[in-house]
Amino acid sequence: MLKVYQVKKGQGHYALEAVATQSEEGLNVYLGGGEKPHIGTIVLCQPRPSLKMDGSLSQTTSVINILGHKDDGVGVPMAQSLCLALRIPVVVTAGVHISDAKAEEITAMQKVAEEITSCLLRLLQPEKDH
Predict the structure, then answer these.
(1) pLDDT, tens digit (0-9, with 9 covering 90-100), for 25-39
(2) Which CATH fold would you assign to the domain 3-124?
(3) Are 19 and 1 a contacting pair, CB within 8 Å?
(4) Could you tell me the pLDDT band of residue 126, with boundaries at 50, 70 and 90?
């Protein structure tokens, strides 16, 4: 059975929206926003035992960017956080656009994406404190 979650955070051209679909064996998230939501990157994270062989959990991350897109700046941290916390494969498709973005605007957008990740974790792990 699929469960669908939707989270919106930020305002103006910093507004982001995530739609997450969870199945028993994985999570698929679309993260879009800014001036023009689109598909710019696809991130796949798969949990695995750490290569340190100490019993801890790590992940293998694969990223595909559409030429000229840097949406992995929000997609990779989200996918990795969700993967490690939920211990399931996670796919994040991200498309966030601000024209001629300055460094501080990119940082602000990354913070909104972090807020959305935290909200998703609270929704997906309601029994745990975050």
Answers:
(1) 999 999 999 888 899
(2) Ribosomal Protein S5; domain 2 (3.30.230)
(3) no
(4) low
